[in-house]
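User: Hello! My lab partner asked me to get a predicted holo structure for this protein. The small molecule is flavin-adenine dinucleotide, SMILES included with the sequence. Please write out the C-alpha cells.
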Amino acid sequence: MTTSPLCSGSTTPLEEHHHSFRFGIIGGGWYGCHIATSLRALGFRVKLFEQHDRLLHEASGNNQFRLHMGFHYARHSDTRTQSHDGFQRFLERYPSLSRSVQDNIYAVPLCDSLIDYGTYRTIMVSSGIHFTEGAPLGVELTNVAGTIYTAERVLLLSKARAYFEAELKEVLALGHRVSHIENMDDGVPIDGERFDFVVDATWGHYARPPDVQVIYEPTLLLYYEGPPDFPAVTLVDGPLCSVYPTEEPGLFTLSSVPHTPLGQFDTPVEARAVRDSVDPQVVAAKRALMEEQIELYLPAFPTLFRYVGPQLAIKTKLIGAHDDRTCQVTRRGRIFSVMSGKIDTVFFATERILSMIEGSGALSVNDVMSSLRDDIRVVNNQTKKRAAGARL
Ligand SMILES: Cc1cc2nc3c(=O)[nH]c(=O)nc-3n(C[C@H](O)[C@H](O)[C@H](O)COP(=O)(O)OP(=O)(O)OC[C@H]3O[C@@H](n4cnc5c(N)ncnc54)[C@H](O)[C@@H]3O)c2cc1C
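Assistant: Hello! Below are the C-alpha cells for the protein in complex with flavin-adenine dinucleotide.
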C-alpha cells in the first residue's frame, strides 16, 4: 500500500520550524493584526506590539472603510488585480467584518474625470470585475456621463477591533511603543526581547520602508449624518470626491482627492505634528471646498446631510504620478517592512513574508542531494516486477 505525502507525516521546511520561530510584530493596525493571526494559525509564535491601548487606532480606524474591489483604480492594473483577489479572500476569511451596501454607485463625471465613461467601463470589463450599469433610483446625480452599480462593501471597524483583540489577547503588548530594534545575524531584539524575525507593520511610522520611496500625508475626512438608505456615491476617475457609509447606519464620510490631504511631508514626525495641530479654521475652509465639490454632482447633499465632525489620519503613500496602491513587502536581514496600500491587500503581505522566509537560508534545503536516479531505479524495478508477474 502506498501512502500519500500528505498523510505520511512528512513536513515542509516551513512546517518544521513552526514551533521554533518567534515573530515580533510592530503595529496593531489591520496589517499587524492580520499578519499576527495568520502566522499564529500556521503554528508560529508571535507577539504584537502596539503603542496605543487598543488595536486599529491609527489609519486602520480612521479611513473611508471601503472594502475595495478595484473600481477605484482604473489607472493602475496591479492595484485592481490585488483588490479583486483580496476582496474575495476577505469575504472568506473575515465573513462578519464587512457588510453590503444596498446601492453602491460609481459615477464618471462629464468633464472632470481623467478618463471618459466608455474607457472606464472598458477597463473594468477587461479586468473581470463584475458590475451592472444604470442610473441610480431616487437620487439625482448631475454633471455625470455614466454610472455603474458595484458590490463593494463597508468594513465594520468595531467588530474588527473586537475580533482581533479576542484572537490575539495572549500575545498582545498594548501600550508598548517600540523604541529600539537591532538586526543581528541570529535574531532581532525588540527593546531587548529576542525574536527570530520582526515585521514592521507601522505603515512607515517606526522606520521608513527600505527600497520604496514614500511620503507622509496628513488627511481630513468629514463625518455627516444622512438618510440611512442613501447610496454610496463615488466619483471617478481623478481629483474627485465620494460619500460612503460607515458601520453605523446613517453616518457617512465625505472624502475628496484634492481637499482631503493636509500637505505632504518627508517624515512621519512632521505629518503627525500637522495632524495633531489642525486649526478649526482649516477644517472649516476644507469643509466648504468639499461640500462645494460634492454638490456639483449630488445637488441634494446640503439638504440631506448634516455635518458631524472631522476625521484625521496619516496616509503613507508611494511616490509616483501613477495611482499605485498595491501592498509592498521589503526585507532587510531579519526585518520585514510592510507598506500597505489598502485593507483588502492584507493577504498579499503575509504571503510575501512567508515566501521570503521559505526562499532564505533560514529554511535551507541546499544540502539535499538529487534523488532522481534512485527514483528511476525504483520505478524501473517495479515495472520489471509487474512485467514478470504478468508472465506468470
Ligand atoms: C483618509 C484615508 C482613507 C482611506 N480609505 C481607505 C478605504 O476606504 N479602504 C481601504 O482599504 N483603505 C483605506 N485607506 C488605507 C488604509 O487605512 C491603510 O491601508 C491601512 O489602514 C494601513 O494599515 P496598517 O496596519 O499598515 O497601518 P496603521 O493602521 O496605521 O497601523 C500601524 C500601527 O502601528 C502602530 N505603531 C506605530 N509606531 C509604533 C511603535 N513605535 N511601536 C508600537 N506601535 C507603533 C500605530 O499605533 C498603528 O496602530 C485609507 C487611508 C486614509 C488615511
